[in-house]
């Protein structure tokens, strides 16, 4: 992960998201028009998937823009609107699940009444979609490791690419064999590909909203690093969570040695702690409460 914590990791990938949105929108129109002309449900499903992707990218762009609005002094939102990125990703996941259900329902209905389809046009539209989706994957590949919303967009484009492959295969089968039900089968395949990606995205959103410890932070290792710092005797009430993708937060009560009695010594301890967290754990937003030995007993009495 990088150090783009100021406004979430999605900000620096906004331009690429916008470009992918334009490409996806163009292919969406092409596939929708060809789907209407040919009657292909698989192509319509892929176009509907792209519509969901476009909606998700629009939400991601809007959330990234809103997230840059800082809280400011005295604001009730001390972290600004950073978590709107996570909420947008959650809504995106719900939309994808709904889309998968609709496609599956329509595909099952097609098995009882399969229309004749023009395979040649479907193959061409599928190939155009595949090329554009591959371009989108290349544009978003780097940001998918840093931002939950960029990752959501990347997974959606990946699903689109696989959906385009399914469309091409089904249209080829129709051209070679005349088995028109292949279109409905491809539609079910597209629906099946959407579901696990949507669930994965919603799981990541839940982890952030439940303030779970980030997967790449080992609390035992982190505690060990803090305790081994010069001037530190112990640490307790250690918490690490995430405000939004690329923005981990940490707080801890640090018990210092008896010789740490002045501001200069305490300042040096804090500098060492923050440097360690930034260099080894990529945590730049940290809060430490410096305590003398025995202070934890006072805290327990207050809490009781």
Please characterize this protein's 3D structure.
The protein is mainly alpha-helical. The chain has 2 domains: 11-209, Cation efflux protein transmembrane domain (Alpha-lytic protease prodomain-like, Up-down Bundle); 219-303, Alpha-Beta Plaits. The protein is built from 9 helices and 3 strands. The chain has a 3-stranded mixed sheet with strand order 1-2-3, covered by helices on one side. A hairpin with a 5-residue loop joins strand 1 and strand 2 (248-256). The longest helix is centred in the middle third of the chain and has 30 residues, at 148-177. The radius of gyration is 25 Å and the shape is elongated. The model is unreliable at 1-9 (pLDDT under 50).
Helix content: 55-70%
Residue-averaged pLDDT, rounded?
79
Percent range for β-strand residues = 5-15%
Return the string of H and E elements: HHHHHHHEEHEH
Count the beta strands: 3
- In CATH terms, the superfamily of the largest domain is Cation efflux protein transmembrane domain
Distance between the termini: 40 Å
Q: In CATH terms, what is the fold-level topology of the largest domain?
A: Alpha-lytic protease prodomain-like
CATH class of the largest domain: Mainly Alpha
